[in-house]
Every structure is written in C-alpha cells, then in structure tokens.
From TrEMBL:
Segments crossing the lipid bilayer: none
Protein's recorded name: Cytokinin riboside 5'-monophosphate phosphoribohydrolase
InterPro entries the record matches: LOG, LOG_fam
Keyword Cell inner membrane: no
Length: 184
C-alpha cells in the first residue's frame, strides 16, 4: 500500500508554468487523499509548490534538507516535520527509507542523481521501491532514449525496467498510484 510519496523535482523557479501546474495537481492529490509527502524540504521551485498544495489540502509532509541548503536560507516553513542532515547521500537514504514510491517531476542534476540512486539501489536489492518518471511535455524523452540505448547496447540489463515506469503526466502518475493501492 502506498502511504508516502517521495518527490524528486526542480528547485528552480524560472521554469515553464506547465511544470508548476503538475506540482499543484500532485500536492492536491496527496493532501486530499491523506497521503504523506517526503521531499527535499526547500522553499523554491516545484518542491515548494507541491508542498504548498499538500498543506492547502490537508496533507502531511516531511522535508529532508541538508545543512548547506538550509544555511543558504532555502529551508521551507511548510513541512510538518523537518529532518536536517549533513550530506545529500544522507538525504537520499532517509527519503528512500521513508517513501513507498517516488515521483520524479522534471528537474536538474540533483533530480537525476536521486532518480538513478533509487533505481540502482533497487536493482541491487537494497529496497523494492519504484520510481515514476512524470514525463510532462516530453521532459524525460531524451533521458529515456539514452536509457533505452544502454539496454540495446548491452550496458544495462533489462531487469532495470522493473524499478521504474514512465508516465506522460501527473494525471497518469496518480492513476498508477490509485491502481497500485486498489491491487494491494
């Protein structure tokens, strides 16, 4: 059963509004369904937009932020619980422990690091959690193309596919979560 959704996403504010709309929809879904959000805890970008809507719709959230990011004044005031850690590795570890599934909204290098960490550690058997790529506006198309090339050229085993799913938008991600919860 999915109770806690881990979120990886952009901490940038100067991105297309379509991505903020997806963050609003995700936050609303989490809040209205009394699910929990675990995320990076920053007060910028898609992180803050999702958190704002989780809060608006009555949801619970935990932020996991590094001392460095907090020291830059980027610590959100929205989380019900904030965990401060020293390193990004600790942050990923705690998020992986607490989440039941992950959604990757569009993001930059930090998001990519988090995505691949979850997939690689699942493949090695450290956990069995999946990640949903929210491919809004085709954001992850080139990345998925590269991943497919890794399979076709023998650099990655097809069994890595078991650890993620590519959804065309947040509506499809939400359908997958609802379906998973009904099947359990």
């Amino acid at each position: 059963m999915i109770h806690t959704i881990g979120l990886f996403c952009s901490s940038e504010n100067e991105i297309d509004t379509i991505y903020f709309d997806e963050a609003v929809s995700l936050g609303r879904f989490i809040g209205e369904n009394k699910l929990r959000l675990i995320y990076g805890g920053a007060n910028v970008g898609l992180m803050e937009e999702t958190a704002r809507n989780v809060k608006l719709y009555g949801g619970y959230m935990t932020g996991v932020i590094t001392e460095k990011i907090s020291g830059w004044g980027k610590k959100s005031k929205l989380p019900d619980r904030m965990i401060q850690v020293k390193t990004l590795a600790e942050r990923k570890q705690i998020m992986t422990e607490l989440a039941d599934i992950f959604i990757a909204l569009p993001g930059g290098f930090g998001t990519l690091d988090e995505i691949f960490d979850v997939i690689a550690s699942a493949h090695l058997g450290y956990h069995s959690k999946k990640i949903l790529f929210c491919n809004t506006n085709g954001f992850y198309d080139k990345l998925i193309e590269q991943i497919e090339y890794s399979y076709h050229s023998g650099f990655a085993k097809n069994s890595y596919r078991d650890h993620y799913h590519v959804a065309s938008n947040i509506t499809e991600c939400i359908k997958i979560i609802k379906k998973t919860n009904k099947e359990i």
